[in-house]
């Protein structure tokens, strides 16, 4: 069979599986909604107000958030692995997630220590304060990394700078933890476990538009990414501006990571594992295929993780990082063994 036709068939199968998992996310949970009632509520929301509230106020926003976050982190991981030519690179490598964590720590831990009660516990802050603080922290680190990328040519040096920023942010966060009360520390730890339920209906529109913009921008990168795989010297001979290309890739990857981390917490393993699954399934390094492939597979796996986290029998949601690790960790072990 023609390789292009096989790729199209694989993409269609992934889309079909994704649609099935999306509806299962609406159907299954701590309360299982019969399919007939679910369908009636989708067509006529006023037919059953209770089920309508469960579906449209909780499960649908959570499923859409999982779908978009999975795509964003997977694309971000692919960009990082290509840019650094490192199979174990992931979206958190440059310290952007740590910056988001520092922003949340300031909001929850520092204000709680100084004022006796965390800002996140007050009215408006309880809805948007943590997300805003995480986004500002992630954006600050992203700006620092972009500034360094314009001065540093060697990607290994940039990785080291990103790691040092992560250590610095982690150190400041640990100091704030030491002086905080256990209730604030508990709230911070819960945020760090990750969740697709924090977006909700009030923030879903902005989250969806912001992620869609980043994903759309990544669709213009395949040519640059394919050339960078051949090495910087070859890319320069073809007229590619290496510094500008690196800046653009870091900007898009960091932007997607910042948005997801701000709204969902630091989600682990998706950005690391999904690009390798895409390469294994499609047997290619061509980013014209890989970018849409990682988007779709990221959506699929993220919906699966969200479904497991909300499986019938669980009261509430399991931490999403506990579920993504079950899938991502074996993939990382497989990568290490396969690459020897």
Summarize the structure in words.
This protein is mainly α. Helices cover 78% and strands 0% of the residues. It has 14 helices and no strands. It has helices at 3-27, 35-43, 49-84, 96-115, 123-151, 155-178, 182-192, 200-218, 222-228, 232-237, 242-264, 270-282, 287-309, 320-339. α1 (3-27) runs parallel beside α13, α5 packs antiparallel against α6 and α12 packs across α13 (287-309). The chain is globular, with a radius of gyration of 21 Å. The relative contact order is 0.16.
Unreliable runs: none
In terms of structural class, how would the helical and strand content be classed? mainly alpha
Task: Characterize the overall form.
Answer: globular
Mean pLDDT equals 82
Strand % is under 5%
Largest sheet: none
Straight-line N-to-C gap: 32 Å
Number of helices: 14
List the helices and strands and how they pair.
Elements: H1 3-27, H2 35-43, H3 49-84, H4 96-115, H5 123-151, H6 155-178, H7 182-192, H8 200-218, H9 222-228, H10 232-237, H11 242-264, H12 270-282, H13 287-309, H14 320-339
Task: Give me some keywords for this one.
mainly alpha; 14 helices; 340 residues
Describe this structure in a few short sentences:
The protein is mainly alpha-helical. It is 78% helix and 0% strand. It has helices at 3-27, 35-43, 49-84, 96-115, 123-151, 155-178, 182-192, 200-218, 222-228, 232-237, 242-264, 270-282, 287-309, 320-339.
